[in-house]
Amino acid sequence: MLFQGYTRIDLTLCPLSLKEDWNRGDEGISTILLDKDDLFRAPQLLSDKQYHLQMPTEANFLDCCNEFWWVCTYVVKGLCRNEFLYAVDHLTIQARTELLRMMSWRIATERGFTFSLGKNNKYLPNYLEKHEFLELQSTYDVSTNKKVWHALQASQVMFIRESTKEAKSQLMPLRPRRSLKAVTNFVYSYLRYLLFVNQLFWSCIFSPIL
Questions:
Q1: CA pseudo-torsion sign 176, 177, 180, 182
Q2: Most exposed residue of 62, 96, 189, 191, measured as fewest CB within 10 angstroms of its CB?
Q3: Rounded Cα–Cα distance for residues 67 and 78 (Å)
Q4: Nearest CA to 103 among 132, 72, 71?
C-alpha cells in the first residue's frame, strides 16, 4: 500500500476464518499495527532468525562448485556462437548466483551464522572490503561480448578465491584451482576451433570454382 505522502507498507488482508495463519512464514518479521477487536494472538518478538545464513554441508558446497563451473561452459558456448543473451543469462542468473552463495558462506564462516544478507543480498557490500566490492561490481558490466568474457573471468577468479577460503575453513574437499579454470579456457578454444572449421567447410562448398 502506497500513501499520498509516499509512505509504503506491505499490507496483508485475510478472512477471519484464516486469522490464525495470517503471518505464516513471516512470523518473525510481521507485526500487528492495530487490532481494535482483539482478535489476534500477541505476535512473537520480531526477529529475522529464519533468514540467517546457514552453514553449508559438504554436499551443499560441492553442488555450488559443480553448478558454477558447469554453467561457465554454457557462457563460453554462448560467446563462441555469438549468442549474447544466452551467454549473459547463464552468467548473471546462474553462475553469479553460485558466486554470491559462496561469498555469503565465506563471510558467515568468518563472522558466525547469526545474520542475514537481506533480500537479493542487499547487505552483502557491508561485509566486503572496498576492493572486493569493486571486483564484484566489475562482473555486472556485460554490455558487450568482450565485457561478458571479462566478467566471466573475473567471476572465476573470485569463485576460486572464495571457495578455497571456505574449503579450508570448513575442511571441505576442493579440486585443484588451475584445472577448474583450465576447463573453461579449453572449452572456449575448442568451440572457437569448431566454429572456424564449420565456417571454412561451408565457405568451401559455396565458393565458386575458378
A1: negative
A2: 189
A3: 17
A4: 132
